[in-house]
Every structure is written in C-alpha cells, then in structure tokens.
Amino acid sequence: MLTDLLLLLLPIAAASGWMMANQRGDEATTQQHKVPKDYFVGLNFLLNEQPDRAVDIFIKMLEVDSDTVETHLALGSLFRRRGEVDRAIRIHQNLIARPHLNKQQKIQALLALGQDYMRAGVLDRAERIFLEVVESGEEFSPSLRYLLDIYQQEKAWLRAIEIAEKLEVKVGESMKVNIAHYYCELATVEVSISNAEQAKKYLRKAIAINKDCVRASLIYGDIELTDKHYKAALKFYKQIEEQDPDYLTESIAAIATCYEHLGQQGELLKYLKECLHKYPRITLVLLLAQQLQRHDDLVPALEIITTYLKTHPSIRGLQYLIKLQMQKTENQNQDNLKILNELAKAILANKPNYRCEKCGFEAKKLDWLCPRCRTWNTIKPIHGLEGD
C-alpha cells in the first residue's frame, strides 16, 4: 500500500514543482513551465488501477520534456521494487534512448537498467551495463559493488577477486575478508577434484590476505587430515582458537581425531580442559566427557557434565546426562529417562545451530555467506541454553 501511495505521489510532486515555477517566473517562464495535461491523465490512470496506461503516458511525456528524467528514474525504481521488472526495464530503456540526456543522467539510467536486469536474473546483460559504467569513469563504487554481487552469484571467484581489489584501491574499503573467502571457494573446487596442491596455494593466499581466516584453516586442516598428516592438521586446526574462538567447536572433533591417531590421549584431555577453562562450550564438555568415559568409568563423565550444567544450563548437556544416567538405571526409572531423552531430542530437532550476527538469519548448518544479508563471515555458532 505504501509503495502504491509513493507511486501516486510522483506525478503530483512533479506537478507541484511546475506550479512553484509558475508562481516565481515571468510570463514567458510561466508558459514554459505550464503543468502538462498528460500528468493528470496519467494520475487518473493510476487512481483507477491502470498502471500500464499510466506508464505509457509518462513515457510519452518524457519524449516531450527531458526535465522529467528524475521522475521517471524514480518511477522505474518503484516498479522494480514492486517486482514489476518489465515495466522498470521499459522506462529505463526509453530514458537511455533519448539523445539529449546529459552524461550524468545517462549513467544514472544505465545503473537503474542494470539493477532491473539483476532483479530479472539476466546477469549477463547486467554485467555488460555495469562494466560500461565502470569504463566511463563515473559512479565507480556502485558499479563495482553490483559487479561483485553478480560474480558471487555466478561463482566467478577470480573475477570477484579482481573487482574486490579494485574496490579497495578506488574506494579505500578493506575487502580482505571477502577476498580470503573467494580464495577459499577456489580451494574448495580444487579439493572436490582431488587437486590438493592447488587448493593449498589458494588457502595460503587466503591466509596471507586475512590472517584470521578461520575457513582457510579448517579446509587446510581437512586436507592434511585426509592425507593422514596429523601433526600438520593439528597446527591448522589449533590456530582457529587465535583467529576466532567462536569457531573453535567447528574443529574440535577433528582435533580429537588427530590426537587419537598420534596416540596422545593425555595431550587431548589437557587441551580440552584448557579450552573449556577459557571458552565454556557444551561441545567441549561433551567431548571431554566422552573421552573420560572411554578410558574410565561413568563417574568422571557424570561429574564434569553435572558441574558444567550447574553454571551453564544446556539442553544438549541435559540430554547427554540423561543418556549417562540410563546406563546406570534399570526398569521403570529407565523408561522415564527415555521419555525425558526423547523430549530433549524433540526440543533440539528444530532449533538452529547458527545465527548471522548482522541480520539474525538462523540455520542448522554453517554457511560462510549469509543467504539473507549476503555478508561473509557473520554466521556463527549459537551459544547458550539451546545452542553450543
């Protein structure tokens, strides 16, 4: 409803401008700025919910008076936001076709048309338009940002890197987080085709650009783990704590695997206790309890879980505690514990594990690029009662 009202106000605003000009000017100026009758015809079509005919009227007026360029740019943008992309394209194409537009007006019309094509999913046309604007030397920053969005959608990571580097130079904005992720994307492709060496080259570039790139460390660690280079894998997994401890739990299971293959269970227990002291996370507690349970009886595992839950309530922790108690209980009491276990399981089933710190988007699995706000590295594990 609000958009419709804005749409109706556009011709009114234009008409008001002409009226004010009439009041200020002399007789010649008044004649020059007389309110065109077609504006009221177009307004009448809008009021009667005939937008197609209104658009025809406004385009016809544009052919007569180039002073209405800004009005038509706004009108086209409104149609795009309403999802009526064909109408927006029509308006902006007609603007660009006018021979008497000044350079800035043409650039604005090109940017608008490029956005129309992006909204329509015609990325190749949008790309050509934004490249044309970049080459013109005008509106450099918006054009580069649109191109970056296009290349991300197309997964053209090398071109995305090129554009991000240009943004850094031209705008002075740090793009190191984005560029590091683009190299990680390239590394992931190489891993999928078993080209580990090329993947490592991309990962080294990612870390060189952004030393805090957790994703690069995770991928590098996974490569080394797959190749059974456990010490090398440990090095990359353990540096995540320094890069961003929020992601520590993403690597902790792999860290345990490396220590076990190296026959260093004692070092593993020591490392888990050190991490737990600095970062109270239920994932760390559960892994520590599992290790204690494997090498001892249930008592130490029960103690560490109950101690943690007293100060850090956690449904995941409660569920694990119930499972441990079931191993010690028989008959009717065990049936009751099974009911509690199923209840905890049901509570967790539909709960998200990750949340975007920028827009609040929630997900069950980790995604490095937020699907909602299109920001890199803002989705992190959820902590607390229903999270980690």
Report on this structure.
There is one protein chain. The protein has 388 residues and is an all-alpha fold. It is 73% helix and 2% strand. The protein contains 21 helices and three strands. The chain has a three-stranded antiparallel sheet with strand order 2-1-3, with no helix packed on it. The longest helix has 23 residues, at 2-24. The two termini are 42 Å apart. Mean pLDDT is 84; it is low at 1-9 and 23-33.
Major β-sheet annotation: 3 strands, antiparallel
The number of strands is 3
Shape: elongated
Question: Uncertain runs with pLDDT below 50, 5 residues or more?
Answer: 1-9, 23-33
Write the layout of secondary structure elements.
Blueprint: H1 2-24, H2 27-32, H3 37-47, H4 51-62, H5 69-81, H6 85-97, H7 103-120, H8 123-136, H9 140-154, H10 157-171, H11 176-192, H12 196-209, H13 214-226, H14 230-238, H15 240-243, H16 248-261, H17 265-278, H18 282-295, H19 298-311, H20 315-326, H21 331-349, E1 354-356, E2 362-363, E3 379-381
Antiparallel strand pairs: 1-2, 1-3
Helix pairs in contact: 1-3, 1-5, 3-4, 4-6, 5-6, 5-7, 6-7, 7-8, 8-9, 9-10, 10-11, 11-12, 11-13, 12-13, 13-14, 13-16, 14-16, 17-18, 18-19, 19-20, 20-21
